[in-house]
Amino acid sequence: MQRIVLFGGLIFVFCWFPAVECVAAPITFDFTGTVTSIIVYPNYSPPPPDVFVGAAVLGSYTFESTVTDGSAATNTGMYVSSGSPYGFAVQVGSLSVIDDYVRIFVLSDSYAFPQYNASSEYKMPGYNAGIALLFPTGPVFPTDSLPTAPPDLNSFANRGGNITYYPLAGMGTMQGYRVSFRLDSLTTPIPEPMSLTLVALGIIGIGALRFCRRI
Q: Residue 16's domain spans which residues?
């Protein structure tokens, strides 16, 4: 009976695991940062008092792993995911921007200025937020394909983001205020299907160990 259970478990894992790799799934990148500057434009109120230089920044964005490139250029990738569970979110103190839209922009190494951007949807009036990795210190993007693992921050000379408030529509680029921050980390949690696989392998391993001890 134990042989049947063990064999069945192995079949389940090795048949199910390849399927996970082929199925499109949401991918989440988490990021942290530190506010470096706040610009308030004339005649507009500043951000909440708990938003100050040195304040902690917490954020994340979730995108579709197989979303189609919306750019026709060979060295430019533009990937848009919208609707739950996709989107971009960032918070500093009581100031938060949450959007069910995220755009990831990739310029490959063949472009004059390779870079990586992720941002919420552009809104006027409203809040806009995003992060940008600029001026790489070496090759980072061989192609303009969508990175499914976080880019290494240490590979970029300029890594930061901002939250911008546009109070009125039809005012061009007129801003109420801009909160800029340094990007300190960009990571991704272990995908849930992988966690389930590890648990399954652990259970099978325990079963195999017990089986071998009985032989």
A: 1-24+191-215
- Distances in Å between the Cα of 50 and the Cα atoms of 54, 57, 184, 207 are 10, 12, 20, 54
Q: Cα–Cα distance between 21 and 178 in angstroms, integer?
A: 40
pLDDT above 90 as % of the chain: 65
The answer to whether the beta carbons of residues 85 and 26 sit under 8 Å apart is: yes
- Give tens-digit pLDDT for 146-203: 999 999 999 999 999 999 998 876 655 577 999 999 999 999 986 555 454 544 445 4
Domain identity same for 121 and 88: yes
CA 57/CA 163 separation, integer angstroms: 10
| Full-model pTM | 0.77
Q: CA end-to-end span of the chain, whole Å?
A: 13
